[in-house]
Amino acid sequence: MVNFTIDKNKNTPLYIQIFNQFKKYIENGSIPQGYKLPTIRSLAKELGVNNITVINAYKLLELNGYVNKKVGSGTYVSQDIKQNDLTREDIKALEHGQILLNKNMINFSSSSPNPELFPVDDFKIIINKVLERDGGYAFEYQDTKGYMPFRKSICEFIKKDEIDIDYEDVQVISGGQQGIDVVSKALINFGDCVFVESPTYSWAIASFKSRGAEIVDIALNKDGIDIDELEEKLKIFKPKLIYTMPVFQNPTGISYSEDKLKKLIDLAYKYDTYIVEDDFSNELNFSSNKHLPLKSYDKYDRVIYIKSFSKIYMPGLRLGFIVSPKNLVNSFAEAKYVSDLSTSGLMQRAFEIYLREGIWKKHIERFKKIMRERFDEMKYLLSGNKYFEVNIPDGGFYFWLKLNDDISAKKLYLKCIERNVSIVPGNMFFSNKVDDSHIRLSYASCEADKMKSGISTLNDILKDIHNEENSEYIPIV
Amino acid sequence: MVNFTIDKNKNTPLYIQIFNQFKKYIENGSIPQGYKLPTIRSLAKELGVNNITVINAYKLLELNGYVNKKVGSGTYVSQDIKQNDLTREDIKALEHGQILLNKNMINFSSSSPNPELFPVDDFKIIINKVLERDGGYAFEYQDTKGYMPFRKSICEFIKKDEIDIDYEDVQVISGGQQGIDVVSKALINFGDCVFVESPTYSWAIASFKSRGAEIVDIALNKDGIDIDELEEKLKIFKPKLIYTMPVFQNPTGISYSEDKLKKLIDLAYKYDTYIVEDDFSNELNFSSNKHLPLKSYDKYDRVIYIKSFSKIYMPGLRLGFIVSPKNLVNSFAEAKYVSDLSTSGLMQRAFEIYLREGIWKKHIERFKKIMRERFDEMKYLLSGNKYFEVNIPDGGFYFWLKLNDDISAKKLYLKCIERNVSIVPGNMFFSNKVDDSHIRLSYASCEADKMKSGISTLNDILKDIHNEENSEYIPIV
């Protein structure tokens, strides 16, 4: 059925080689759910390794949720391991509202605000200013690291988040996804290990996997990543990086406590790895709790901070930046060059003015006011519901719902679509686990006046499914 | 000194595994120039393989220029194998004129035209038209494959090159380099083989290598790629793709004959591989010879056509497109999504108008006239020179000079810089060979009135070097 090969000359310990191969075969379905693994002795003999090597590999598989041990019976592949992805098209559609949502659709799926909220008028003026001032030079190749005045204005801009850096540490990118891709190119080689929060943003995983990385999940608690699990796994694997969204996480809305932020940085230092911080919405804090970026605590220069301007300003800018640890600046520049040479000069020059002249503050004020209304309305509408539990975030765009009574998220999703409500089923945020009990609701693209009707429909459907499920199981006696 | 491992379970033939490892060690300098390889018998014994396996591996190394056989003595690593790259910073600087060339510098190095030639005024009008018409929608995420009206206008546009396709085959990209990167992501996995012309564009190689590809060179003759060498190597390796620039190649200016274009496509079909055609300047034909893109001959749907708008229109657009074989359309879309989600909507919408309304024709006419003057002047200035041979291209931006009398290209390059003339030494266009006898001159950024003085300086320096070299070797008797 499957073929195991181990290479004793490799640096990777043998038990991790065995673990990686099981992982691959389980994920791609070559080893099906419920399959009983070979006994320790037989596999050890077949591979010519010690029993303890196989024992350690099986322990790792268990630790990562791939297998369950049944006492006295053996080790079995988990029934809830993910073996088939949702199609990529679905994910794309849901993440960015790229499917033509019909006009009457109530949109709880898009991560980006409706275009009516974009600061287009200001931009029109600024773009013309740039064209007037710079002419053809706005359309030349720009420095790969970014247009220097723009990099300088970024340094001023992020002082608001208590991040104090030199423009030499700034790498301009064409949006957050390119940031992830550039970091992947620079740091990840075939066979490297990457840690991610579970659940997390699926297209970050796609980028790491595209470089041949092995993905290891770390559970997310209500106050951030599970530090104990993280350290336990750091001792075993040697990840090239830990991918995180410490503020208003996608999809859970969770923010790390200050204590966890500090511990995370200490662990990165202790185990000699890097943390990628993906920040797309830290401006949207609706609580009285301070939520500074992880980067502002980065005393060991271990945080690669990726900032996107897409969600809070406009996706179409295709702009963002990386704040890089000193020793990675040139690697990121080279990766950026290989990717697309440089980012649009026109947009960099326009956004430079936007930042330098403080025009962004006006937009944020207005934007935050509108989002605050939506946030409060969502919070109100989602409270005290018996069909799900919801974790109220301190800000950002996302509410993450855990469905009660075994209600199927997939069924809910499909029925919502029928009734013109679009939501995101939780399954797509898990890298290797099947999840059918969570959904993500975003209000980025949903006006406050539509929410009531949307959540009311959601409730009707939940009630129907709940009743259906219960009636199905009433025994006829 | 080095470690060889071979894996008999792998699909790759053993002699190719051995070849690949020698190649790696020779390229990274672990096995130095002039080193004598182990005898066939001793290596075969050490690796536990047949003599014939080692013989085949050594033959391959010889075929690819890594080693020379000396009869009765053994096999030695070539003296002219490339073991140290020029620094990446140098290459970047030279390719795109990103170093701050001092104002008085005569620029024969840049590949992109001076900004004074960009159609900025037309674009200013069009951008405002788009902002007026589409408002915030111009700044939304666009479809990953591209803004549909733009894709449709591209289909009309390339009918000029006798390429007739459906908009479904078009993938919009943010410039030619991203096209290469997207194709690499979609097709190349760690250990795959890629064929390139020798010499070729170094940042294509960087992209392939970043995916873990093994690069194999194919010589370029005056009428295109060496078809016999290509077929010989196709029989041995199974390349994922063959990267080519069939019209006005970078750096040589060479264009393929129609016969070679057809043969290339037949070979791709016969050996089940793809050809990447990188086209950045086919509009600049100054001859009466027809130079249609390879894609227009693509009867087997084997050509991945990458078109950049950077060199002929404006680099700052960050726009281009891939015409994809039907079966690769979705792979490219996924790779594009992982790379940066989508390309700027504003630029796509603006260029859609530019193409649809035929405004590009006006620009090309003016642009071609100016480039023609420069081309003719260069041709005149470079003719009948005793220090180099030059191949006069049919169009494009590049003249490729072969220096006579062992004049060192590197020395020439350094002396030119001192005298405020910038040229590109040929070395950077070879993936594994040291070259010190070619230079590339581009007139993209060099006004006709500066050329005379630039070439005259070049000639002075050539004369000096030539005299120096000769005087050094006069024996004192």
From TrEMBL, chains A, B:
- Gene3D superfamilies (UniProt xref): Aspartate Aminotransferase, domain 1, Type I PLP-dependent aspartate aminotransferase-like (Major domain), Winged helix-like DNA-binding domain superfamily/Winged helix DNA-binding domain
HTH gntR-type domain sequence ranges: 12-80
Give the cofactors, semicolon-separated. pyridoxal 5'-phosphate
Keywords, in A-Z order: Aminotransferase, DNA-binding, Pyridoxal phosphate, Transcription, Transcription regulation, Transferase
Report the GO molecular function annotations: DNA binding; DNA-binding transcription factor activity; pyridoxal phosphate binding; transaminase activity
Q: How does it assemble?
A: Homodimer.
Which family is annotated? In the C-terminal section; belongs to the class-I pyridoxal-phosphate-dependent aminotransferase family. Belongs to the class-I pyridoxal-phosphate-dependent aminotransferase family.
The protein here is known as Transcriptional regulator, GntR family with aminotransferase domain
